[in-house]
Amino acid sequence: MALGLPLGPALGATGGGGRPLVWQNLAASRAFSVGYVNTTSEYIRVSVNAQSTAAGYVVISATVGGVSCALSEIYAPAGGGYSASVLFEVPPGQSYSVNASGSGAPSLGLWAELAPAGRQ
């Protein structure tokens, strides 16, 4: 299913600087409720998934530059294994964070960023 989400200015297969953009798995170096900054000179796209580890609600939300920009909520009727995701863009120089909460005891399932190759 295509999301139909427009990309930021000059964001496509390469960034505004002509560098190739690649999806990077950053789950090992990212955490909920921690602030990060887009230190590149280009827009980046961020995809984060919160998985339930128990029955109950899971809410995941993203904030960019102090403004809430994405929210997703699910209800896990029994046990874990359900997930909620957010996908959002971050302009150059902006801060961003993702929070997850709920009685479904959310854990980080995926954190990937589409950014210039070689960026960590």
The total strand number stands at 8
**Strand numbers in spatial order across the main sheet:** 1-8-3-6
Strand content: over 45%
Catalogue the unreliable spans: 1-7
In the residues, how many domains can be counted? 1
| CATH top-level class | Mainly Beta
Description of the molecule:
The chain has strands at about 20-25, 35, 45-50, 55-65, 65-75, 85-90, 95-100, 105-115. It is about 0% helix and about 50% strand. Mean pLDDT is about 90; it is low at about 1-5. It is elongated, with a radius of gyration of 15 Å. The strands form two sheets. The chain has a four-stranded antiparallel β-sheet with strand order 1-8-3-6, with no helix packed on it. The protein has a four-stranded antiparallel β-sheet with strand order 2-7-4-5, with no helix packed on it. The protein starts with 20 loop residues before the first strand and ends with a strand. It is built from no helices and eight strands. It has one domain (about 20-115): Jelly Rolls, CATH 2.60.120. It has about 120 residues and is mostly beta strands.
